[in-house]
Design goal:
InterPro entries: AhpD-like, AhpD_core, CMD-like. Helix content is 64%, strand content 0%. It is an all-alpha fold. It has one domain: Up-down Bundle (AhpD-like). The longest helix is centred in the C-terminal third of the chain and has 23 residues. It starts with 11 loop residues before the first helix and ends with a helix.
Length: 163
């Protein structure tokens, strides 16, 4: 059984860092980028990165905010499903390319960027790119520290932000 290496919230320095990450998350929640899209993006990046903790969090948050189990279950196969809007598909494509930078010689393609820019204004694009960067950083921290999924309760992140 995998055991967590460090409880970041019980480590004084770790708790300070986590609060700052939560503050960025809170700011992103204020962006005009829909929470539904934000949850899909965070879930997809977390799936790619194999972060059980973050998959648990973002699947449960998406459900708590009213997304359907069908959509949540199909995020990993979004290209081969009918339940996502073209706008959401553009965000998911950008998420995948930005998350898999090392796998693509060109990084995020001009085609993928243009597709996202078709649906999102500049502020939303800044929020989307920041969200993707932040969830990738969070995934890497959680996987490295062996943070386990399965016990997250919806609303916990929001409660931590508002402390």
């Amino acid at each position: 059984m995998i055991e967590p290496r460090i409880d970041i919230m019980k480590n004084e320095f770790g708790a300070k860092l986590a609060k700052r990450l939560f503050a960025v998350h809170g700011l992103l929640q204020q962006a005009s980028l829909s929470h539904r899209t934000q949850n899909l993006v965070m879930l997809r990046a977390s799936q790619i990165n194999g972060c059980g903790n973050c998959i648990d969090i973002h699947a449960k948050e998406a459900a708590a905010e009213g997304d359907t189990s069908t959509r949540i279950n199909l995020v990993a196969g979004w290209r081969h499903s009918t339940v996502f809007t073209e706008e959401e598909q553009a965000a998911l494509a950008l998420t995948e390319e930005a998350t898999r930078l090392a796998d693509a010689s060109e990084g995020v393609s001009d085609e993928t960027w243009a597709r996202a820019a078709k649906y999102y204004d500049e502020d939303q694009l800044v929020a989307l790119v920041t969200l993707i960067a932040m969830i990738n950083a969070t995934n890497r921290m959680a996987v490295t520290l062996n943070q386990l999924g399965g016990s997250y309760e919806p609303g916990l992140i929001e409660a931590t932000i508002n402390k």
